[in-house]
Amino acid sequence: MIQSIFDVDPTIFRPDTHTGDAQGAVALRLRWLATLLGGFRYRYGSEAQLHDRLAEVLGAHNCAFQRERRLDAASRVDFWVDGIVIEVKVGGTVGAALRQAHRYAMCPEVQGVIIASTERWAAEAETMARDGRTLAGKPFGAVCLLRQAL
Each residue of 75-110: b (16+ CB within 10 Å) or e? Predict the structure, then answer.
């Protein structure tokens, strides 16, 4: 189950991808995805259930995505949305998450990376993303996923 925390439909924030600046268009799509995912509270009991809830949100907003996409022999991402990786973290440290995200960003086909986490450190990662930081020269985003009360 998911519960929106938006007062307005988040689809109005979907960017126009015809900006002429490819990196800027990726950054806009990335920010839109992070805003979308951060606009809900999620009810889940396991990481797999959280993945299911995120898939519901993406599907409900007409986002074509792949789950568990393999980039190479060592890298399988949680979600792939048109060149943007969404890596979901329900445990671990910010350092480990950033190292993993950087490894993904090093792959040529990856255009940007979002870390979506339920951990308290996600707020720190969100601040880094708002400051315009990149990973391997590619747009980076982070979102703190809020839990819905049972």
Answer: eebbbbbeebbbbbbeeeebeebbebbebbbebeeb
CA 93 to chain centre: 17
Give the domain extent around 112.
2-147
Instruction: Give 150's pLDDT tier (boundaries 50, 70, 90).
Output: low
How confident is the model at residue 2, as a pLDDT? 52
**Which tokens is 33 given?**
């995805």
Terminal-residue alpha carbon distance, the chain? 10
Helix or strand (DSSP H, E) at 75: strand 75-81
Full-model pTM: 0.83
Q: Which amino acid is at 120?
A: R
Count up the domains in the chain and report the number.
1
Going by C-alpha positions, the residue among 16, 139, 130 that lies closest to residue 83 is 139
